[in-house]
Write a structure and sequence with these properties.
By secondary structure, the chain is α+β, with helices and mostly antiparallel strands. The protein has helices at 2-8, 16-26, 44-53, 60-73, 168-176, 220-228, and strands at 29-30, 78-85, 98-103, 107-109, 121-122, 129-131, 134-141, 144-149, 152-162, 187-192, 195-200, 203-208, 211-216, 232-234, 241-243. β8 (144-149) and β9 (152-162) form a beta hairpin. The longest helix has 14 residues, at 60-73.
Length: 244
């Protein structure tokens, strides 16, 4: 617990909102393992080694999976919720497409979506919720809950609590299927106090105070190292990034 808290710059007395925000400012959302043929293991020791000890990031199953463990160790009640992400033309992704957290039966917590709210969202409110990252809103959809960001649907949450192991098949699909958007190319992104920084393809994209700049880079591996501290090298054989 203490090593994890040190990783995100928090303490045992930090509030839920502080833990959430510091996590997003410290740990990147990234899919590099998907492009290094590294199998992602949804087990706490493996996730702790990757995110805490090796100071990596990950995607939703990893980031929210390990964050749930931290919150439980700190005394919070945590339920793992499955979601289907809205894509183009509001088409929904597969079941277990995303993992989010319901904390203390009061807060929607999500440190694993990429670009999302900087602070927890009220689970019971159906009004607009203003956040540094935009305006969010939860709406009931039958037995499910739809989450909106700046008026656009983000994902549809089930209310039924799940176990981390239930996400393993879809996690594998995300890593291997040509239809998975995580297979389109390596990327990493992290929240900033007033924006976001992203490395994708051969571009570094920075948004600060509503202003976006995009810079071309010749060496994506150098950009991952400079902006996220991720050590990688380009494989001449396969054309994908491989871990040093």
């Amino acid at each position: 617990m203490d090593a994890y808290l040190q990783r995100i710059g928090a303490s045992r007395t930090s509030s839920l909102a502080e833990l959430h925000e510091r996590h997003l400012l410290s740990v990147p959302f990234e899919n590099l393992d998907t492009h290094m043929d590294t199998r992602i293991v949804l087990e706490i020791p493996w996730l702790h080694d990757k995110i805490v000890e090796r100071r990596r990031g990950g995607f939703c199953y990893e980031l929210n999976g390990l964050f749930a463990k931290l919150l439980r160790d700190l005394g919070h009640s945590v339920r793992l919720l499955a979601a289907r992400v809205f894509g183009e033309e509001r088409r929904l992704g597969p079941p277990f497409d995303h993992l989010a957290l319901l904390v203390d039966d009061a807060w929607l917590v999500d440190v694993g979506f990429g670009s999302f709210s900087l602070r927890p969202l009220s689970w019971t409110s159906r009004e607009d919720q203003k956040d540094p990252a935009g305006v969010f809103r939860l709406e009931d959809h039958g037995d499910d809950v739809d989450v909106y960001h700046d008026g656009k649907p983000v994902y549809r949450l089930e209310r039924r609590p799940r176990e981390l192991a239930e996400f393993v098949p879809t996690c594998w699909w995300q890593q291997t299927s040509p239809e998975s958007h995580f297979r389109k190319g390596p990327m990493a992104t992290r929240a900033l106090p007033d924006g976001r920084i992203t490395v994708a393809g051969k571009k570094v994209i920075v948004t600060e105070n509503g202003r976006k700049t995009s810079t071309d880079v010749e060496d994506p591996a150098a950009a991952f190292l400079e902006n996220f501290g991720l050590h990688f090298r380009q494989s001449n054989a396969s054309g994908v990034l491989r871990q040093l």
